[in-house]
Amino acid sequence: MKPRQHHVPNATPPHHICDGCGDFNNPYMLKNPVWRQIMPSKRGFLCLDCVAERLGRPLTLLDFTETPINRPIFVAYEMGLRDGRAA
Fold this sequence. Notes:
By secondary structure, the protein is an all-alpha fold. The protein has one domain (15-78). The chain has three helices and no strands. It is globular. The model is unreliable at 1-9 (pLDDT under 50).
């Protein structure tokens, strides 16, 4: 008999944990050339602060793909909640 696996409600999915600092972050998608500059292996996850740090510059809307997962980011920029810096 296999051991029973327990479901932990509200557990943070492991793919939302930053490989750089260990903080939780919401998912997003960057354009491939931007991601490859900081993660040549193409594997892993970084929070927006770690992405900006590795790029050596603030993120801009042009760095993100136009996909539904990025809608909260675009809305934040439109509402002035982001000023071009990774947050």
